[in-house]
Amino acid sequence: MLRRLYQWVIDLAERRSAPWALAAVSFAESSFFPVPPDIMLVPMCLARPRLAWWYASLCTLASVLGGLAGYAIGALLYDSLGLWLINLYGYGARVDAFTEAYQRYGHWIILIKGLTPIPYKVVTITSGFAHYSLFWFVVLSVITRGLRFFMVAGLLYWVGPSARAFIEERLGLVTAAFAVLVVGGVLAAVYLF
């Protein structure tokens, strides 16, 4: 079953509509959707390594635009939609501490959390709620999201064919390692922040 799912994702990544799907997932992940864009970015870079830089650029742009939507949710709709989303992801009890941390470490919070598998929407919504500087929010989001997506794309561009062969030979192990990474990132977020 895992192999069929993998092949389905690779086939989807080769379609002409794949960049639009990547942009949509990347936008949504930064504002409300729980699935990271890496789910689309990795197979797309594996399927077409020569387009990896384009995919990373598209992913970064859509993620920053989605981050602005998340920022607006936090700034304008926090009491209704924003608080509901924060509670949905289990961070409701930590919003006050997170907001206070923004007063001292706002730049670092955006830079560090933007690189991790921790849900970026928590950062975008809380940035809006805390009325963090919109200018710095955009600048730091471009840096951190771009760095994250370009690192993934670069790695897959340079080792794409061998990475694809490695993944296909050890699909179960790679899936388990990815799951451990995501769960570890979430646990780190819960205990560190």
From TrEMBL:
Q: Name one GO cellular component term.
A: plasma membrane
Superkingdom to which the source organism belongs: Bacteria
Keywords, A to Z, come to:
Membrane, Transmembrane, Transmembrane helix
Q: Which residues form a coiled coil?
A: none
Record has Manganese as a keyword: no
Question: Is Membrane found in the keyword set?
Answer: yes
Membrane-spanning residues: 53-78, 134-159, 171-192
Name recorded for this polypeptide? Membrane protein YqaA, SNARE-associated domain
> From which lineage does this chain's organism come?
Bacteria, Pseudomonadati, Pseudomonadota, Alphaproteobacteria, Hyphomicrobiales
